Amino acid sequence: MTSVGEHVEDDRWFAPRREDLLPSEEPVRLLDAQGRVRENPRYALDLEDDGLRALYRFMVITRKVDDEALKLGRQGQLAVYTSSLGQEAAQVGSAYALTERDWIFPSYREHGAARVRGVDPVQQLHHNRGTWVCAHDPLEYRFAPQTVSIATHLPHAAGLASAARLAGDDLVVIAYFGDGATSEGDAHEAMNLASVRRAPCVFFCQNNGWAISVPVRDQLAGPSIAHRAIGYGMPGIRVDGNDVLACYAVTRWAVDRARRGEGPTLIEALTYRMEAHSGSDDPGRYRPPGEIEAWAELDPLTRFRRLLDARGLWDAAMDGEVNRQADALAAELRAGIYDAPAGDPLELFDHVYVERPSLLQAQREMMRRELAGGEA
Ligand SMILES: Cc1ncc(C[n+]2csc(CCOP(=O)(O)OP(=O)(O)O)c2C)c(N)n1
Fold first, then answer.
1. Which InterPro entries match (predicted)?
2. 127 in a structural domain
3. What is the pLDDT of residues 204-253, one digit of tens each?
């Protein structure tokens, strides 16, 4: 007779050691507040000087372009905009750990990851203007459409990663989501599927403290989001999300592991959303006093800049050059978005099916008549 628990010894089951799955007590941190590096033997830091400069450059550009987008939002040029201010290290560090063949599945806040991947910000912001749901070519950039419906892109990410494994392709997928998204059924389904199939998928959660006005303590009763990973049989790692080096090194560890066929990892990056959730949110109604000031002290760019300064890796000329580059991109964004023509609503019916079914065709015809001012 089989005794209780015996099945877990069955070698069809991948049974990793518990201690390899649990997050450490303290979040992984490689850069202290003074900008000094303290290496961690588990998460190798393989960046040369040029790599360090690139991380900083991407963070500065992300912040500048984000600031321009916030202004466009305030001027009524965007239907909605969700800022990445304060989350640059989490996004840039993690995205920098990927190769160009790896896929990114973003939510709606991953502007830093988009800058690293080279997605045109004008195309990206047409999503926010409401011109098109997705103006950039996801296949060209391997950057999936930005997803507003919380966590629905996570099963897509797990699915693409599973398919790649079956096809023998060594690409890796990273999926970005917030702390609030972890309460959605889709997040559970995606993590479970990915782990059971040992799919090369990195689940990168930016715990920025809030899901609009709901604090993270209302999302889970367990010790942390990363602790959930053990339930799926994948490693869970907590990382300082305002430390670009730690975010890079931890993601690199997870990406390498995924590429070796060892399955998914859940990373919880502890960071903070410095702006409102979106243009239609007033954080003054729910943020406790002093919270934003405390996080401002941990600004990811200031901290990393201390390291570059201490190593003599950054000077005024570089500062000028990167700011010019960022200003040029911001100006391109303004020129491409300000008063841009609205999209054609009839496009709603395109690209849904290869051959449009008769019901959809009838709906399209109804809308066409309505737009033309005729009877529906
Ligand atoms: C399925 C679904 N439910 C609710 C919403 C409304 N909504 C938009 S953003 C958001 C909060 C998400 O918070 P989090 O996942 O922590 O990400 P963050 O915005 O903080 O980056 C909610 C509830 C939605 N977009 N989709």
1. Alpha-ketoacid_DH_E1_comp, DH_E1, PdhA/BkdA, THDP-binding
2. yes
3. 999 999 999 999 999 999 999 999 999 999 999 999 999 999 999 999 99
pLDDT at 352 (0 to 100): 87
Cβ–Cβ under 8 Å, residues 243 and 305 = no
Give me the active site residues, please: 273, 277, 286
Q: Is the CB of 106 inside a 6 Å radius of any atom of ligand 1?
A: no
pLDDT of res. 18: 80
Residue 8 belongs to some domain of the structure: no
Q: What is the pLDDT of residues 5-64, one digit of tens each?
A: 444 444 445 557 788 899 998 999 999 988 899 999 999 999 999 999 999 999 999 999
Q: What are the tens digits of pLDDT across the range 119-133? A: 999 999 999 999 998
Q: Which atom of ligand 1 is nearest to the CA of 206?
A: 21
Tell me: pLDDT of 176 over 50. Answer: yes
The pick from 127, 150, 271 for probing ligand 1's pocket by mutation, whose C-beta has the most ligand atoms within 8 angstroms, reads 150
Q: Kindly tell me the number of DSSP H helices and DSSP E strands found in the chain.
A: 13, 7
Distance 350 CA to ligand 1 centre (A): 27
**Which CATH number fits the domain that encloses residue 275?**
3.40.50.970
Q: How far is CA 4 from CA 8, 13, 233, 328, in A?
A: 9, 16, 19, 65
Strand-pair category, 214-215 with 210-211: antiparallel
148 lines ligand 1 (CB under 6 A): yes
* C-alpha span between 274 and 272 (Å, rounded): 6
Instruction: Compute the distance from residue 327 Cα to the ligand 1 centre, in Å.
Output: 30
Nearest-CA residue for atom 17 of ligand 1: 178
User: Does residue 148 contact residue 175 with C-beta atoms inside 8 Å?
Assistant: no
Q: Do 301 and 326 belong together in one domain?
A: yes
Pocket test for ligand 1, best of 105, 212, 218, 281 (most atoms within 8 A of CB): 212
